[in-house]
Amino acid sequence: MTPLDNVAFDEHLASRRIAARDELLHLAQSMSQRNSPQHWDAVKDIPKNAFLEPRLFTQFSQPTFDLTTLQQLLLSQFQERTVLIAVKTDSQGAISIPGLGTCDTGTPATTGTATYLTSGNQLSVQLHGQAAQTFKLKAAVHVPGTEIELVRYLDPAVSAFLRSHSVDFEKTQLVFPTAEHREQIARALTLIERASPAFHTMLHESIRSLCLYHHPSDASFAALGIHGMLFFNVPTTTTVGYFIDELAHQGGHVLFSEATLHRQDFFTVDPDTPMSEVIGDDDARSAYDTFHGLYTEFTVSQILNAISNLGVAKADEATGIRHHFDIVMEHSSRDIALVESCAEKLFTSLGHRVFAQFKDSYDRIQSPVTQ
Fold this sequence. Notes:
Layout: H1 6-35, H2 37-43, H3 54-61, H4 70-74, E1 84-88, E2 94-97, E3 101-104, E4 111-117, E5 122-127, E6 133-136, E7 138-139, E8 141-142, E9 149-150, H5 156-165, E10 173-174, H6 179-195, H7 197-206, E11 209-214, E12 221-222, E13 229-233, H8 240-259, H9 275-279, H10 287-310, H11 315-340, H12 343-346, H13 349-370
Parallel strand pairs: 9-11, 11-13
Antiparallel strand pairs: 1-4, 2-3, 3-7, 4-5, 5-6, 8-9, 10-11, 12-13
Helix pairs in contact: 1-2, 1-8, 3-5, 6-7, 6-8, 6-10, 8-10, 8-11, 10-11, 10-13, 11-13
């Protein structure tokens, strides 16, 4: 099967992403109205992209989750923020407002109302049975030069999702984003932009938040159940190369989840079919998970290779970039060989063309390496 040329491939995935994001938006709006009819009038006229808030998807994916309010989740997107909203405190007594910050009320697991005070980034709060009090918000932290928020508190939505995702949640530790982390992430995004302006633009369209954490065994991840938030299980010492790899890898998962929202378009088998059934050997992944992995390997290898070829990395950055490049090329070699051996059993015509693009990219990058 002949691969698409790069422009056609990018345009095809971009058109599928746009359609999928519109679909996700309509879903988020309709679910918000259905689940929180008492709050709908207050949020129905805010910018529609506000409904791509990752924590909203957690509310939808976990029907028993009801630890925050719709207005609380979306307040930062209100054109007029100084309105009365319904709030809930979490088990620690905190009120978290994505994009604005967190305050500690000292009263856990209760309801009330609040008004945001633009002067001093404060929240005037009246909890059930209490007099009104004013609390200073610990301001949200963003990657410099972007609107990407760095999680600095495990609010109920993020905590609930991590708990459902982690093998042993009690070993999960939130890593507070330091100034060094912020600078490294900003630098990584700058280098990604030099390597692929189109991918950089898509990241900024789709990524709302980054959560840095530490767990002894969990891998970094992104998931449709909290779509638009990336989770990096960071090492003790991070580098620019590390963040380039993770942004391209986990960010790639978010972008490809959008482009493949209708997964069956790419497969002749059930996308959830275990690869072990297809290849007759042990492999814990599904057909779709393997396809997803090929896309992230395709993306990471292209970006790291372009950064190296452009010579835009500093000397200390280049070593780490090369290290991550070697690892992803090894993984890509193994996965391409695996999928190529059973592609006829897996893919529709569209799936074949996308896979051919992955293989063609690998071959083009690999050729000068082996010369």
